[in-house]
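Write out this protein's structure.
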Amino acid sequence: MSVIRVVLADDETMVRAGMRAILSADPGIEVMGEAADGAAAVELVGEHRPDIALLDVQMPGTGGLEATETITRRFPGTAVVILTTFSEDAYIARALSGGAGGFVLKTGDPRELVSGLHAVAKGGAYLSPEIAHRLITELGATGTGGRMSRGAAARERIERLSARERGVLGLIGEGLPNDEIARRLGIVPGTVKVHVGSILTRLDVRNRVQAAILAYEAGLVAEDPFRSSG
């Protein structure tokens, strides 16, 4: 079993200690280092090249959102999961545009943190249920006309994809990692990885979370696209 290598950043010492304890209890996760601000987190990512950077959204100096943008730009092999007590749309929108692949609430079940890291490490997308519900609610809350307009735009965008790519996008929308998508479609994970890369490029989205939202808006998935795959 491959171990998920994690760098974590939070300005509160006790919170970092708690997160380290939760993560260290899972034999499939190794904490490579801790930071108290986003700038230090970026340095740690550059030093260790972990699989995931787990970042608090608000820290003194360079916060998690700024660090997310830097990490995804400079170290594309490291995924970012945002840890937050906030579910405001502005934070989610900026983190999404910055390339974050997951969002976990500090006030949530510790098992969500572990599940979220495993999902993202496998190439999936993860949002805590409360954040997912808020985001999906917001997608449909601007009125029928607004939602229909977004849906039409999303359907037009996915017309750029091949039939196979649309099938893969629908499964991305269900939050499935590459190995599960491969199993569902009867193809090898390497082929799924190629399809995912093509989908992100053709749709001009930065990561699987943005792709999942687009899949939801286009009607490829009926339920929240950020459920843990397990």
